[in-house]
Amino acid sequence: MMKKVISIFLLSAFILSGCIPQNSKPVQPSQLVFKHVWFDFGKVTVGDQLTHTFEFTVEGGPVKITNIFAGCGCTTAKLEKHEYVAGETGEIIARVDTSDFAGLIYKEITVSFESSELGKVDLALVANVSKK
């Protein structure tokens, strides 16, 4: 009886080992990897037009950006295109108009994706605006 159980176990293991691909790599989830998600302009003067580029690389599979939302009218964000494939790089160019501000400001840009698995990415810009 014990020989029969061992024989069945070994036969099952042998059969099942042929069903599992030996050279397959795990599939990586798609993601946008930013070099940084926060930038400090430091001390600037009222009326300065600030520009910063957020660079990213796509890892895993393709990514589709559906929306870039800047929190107020003084901040804009521009994207080269909306669809990227693995290994591709891109950039989001952010601009802040400091004409109506004084003191420390914090501006946020939210990046949304077609896939809900990617969630959202918040990019932040900080500056200390002083009067002329």
Helix/strand/pairing category: mainly beta
- What is the fourth-level CATH superfamily? Immunoglobulins
Hey, roughly how much beta strand do the residues contain? over 45%
Tally of individual domains: 1
What shape does the CA trace take?
A: elongated
Mean pLDDT across the residues is 85
The top-level CATH class is Mainly Beta
Question: What is the CATH topology assignment?
Answer: Immunoglobulin-like
Describe the structure.
The chain is built from 1 helix and 9 strands; from the N terminus they run H-E-E-E-E-E-E-E-E-E. The chain has one domain (31-130): Immunoglobulin-like (Sandwich), CATH 2.60.40.10. Strands 2-9-8-4-6 form a 5-stranded mixed sheet, with no helix packed on it. Helices cover 12% and strands 52% of the residues. By secondary structure, it is mainly beta. It has one helix spanning 2-17; strands at 31-34, 38-45, 49-59, 63-70, 75-79, 83-84, 89-97, 103-113, 120-130.
Key descriptive features of the protein:
elongated; Immunoglobulin-like; mainly beta; 1 helix; 132 residues; five-stranded mixed beta sheet; 12% helix
Give the arrangement of secondary structure elements.
Elements: H1 2-17, E1 31-34, E2 38-45, E3 49-59, E4 63-70, E5 75-79, E6 83-84, E7 89-97, E8 103-113, E9 120-130
Brief write-up:
With 132 residues, the chain is mostly beta strands. It has a single domain, classed as Sandwich (Immunoglobulin-like), CATH 2.60.40.10. The chain has one helix at residues 2-17, and strands spanning 31-34, 38-45, 49-59, 63-70, 75-79, 83-84, 89-97, 103-113, 120-130.
